[in-house]
Amino acid sequence: MLDGVLPKHADLHKFAAQGKEIEGQVEVSKMPRLLLSLVDNSGTVSYKLKFVFEQGRIPTVRGQVQANVQILCQRCMKAMSQDLYSDIAIGVVRNDEQAQQLPRSLDPLMVESDESVSLLEVVEDELIISVPAANYHAEADCESSVGFTSQDDDYIEKVPDEIDNPFKVLKSLKGKCD
Question: Whose CB has fewer CB within 10 Å in the chain, the N or C terminal residue?
Fold first, then answer.
């Protein structure tokens, strides 16, 4: 097992043949695509990856990634802490036909026969997928919700008793046609 070392590039077929396991940490700041969803580049990603052959010699990457990052609360627009977690189950394929034959439990990763894969990008992809689409503090912790209720009279627009309805004319015409 390799501890703390995430190879920049890996031959997943070779890693699966060797039954490699990799465990360690990497800084969030090394993941530029993930940073697009975050408030800052602080945090550390923990990963544990195992490379094996499954079902008819399919090179497979299994494992977990997790991180605690700072994302933007969409209610108060302040930073908030968010735990990201993802179970990894990837089957390495060479074409669409092989991808369609993968079991449903595996996500396909298209790789040419002699192509090496960036494991950092694989880990980053899994974290990007696990970022929630909508991010909010708990209501009690959110600064924008303090002191505001939907019943505040200052925010309720008074509705006149009778509104000019442009369709009144049509109602009167309907009665004449009958």
Answer: C
The encoded tokens of residue 35 equal 């940073």
> CA–CA separation, 25 vs 14, rounded Å?
22
How many whole angstroms separate alpha carbon 168 and alpha carbon 173? 9
d(C-alpha 25, C-alpha 4), whole Å: 6
pTM across the whole model: 0.75
At 129, phi and psi to the nearest 5? -65, -30
Whether 97 contacts 144, CB under 8 Å? no
Ranges of beta strands (E only) in the chain are 2-3, 21-27, 44-54, 58-72, 79-93, 107-110
For residue 120, the SS3 value is: helix
- Tens of pLDDT along 5-29? 788 889 998 999 999 999 999 999 9
Instruction: At 22, list the tokens.
Output: 């990799």
Alpha-carbon distance of 133 to 70, in angstroms, equals: 14
Q: Which of 10, 21, 80 is nearest to 47 (CA)?
A: 21
**Torsion sign across C-alpha atoms 106, 110, 115, 116:** negative
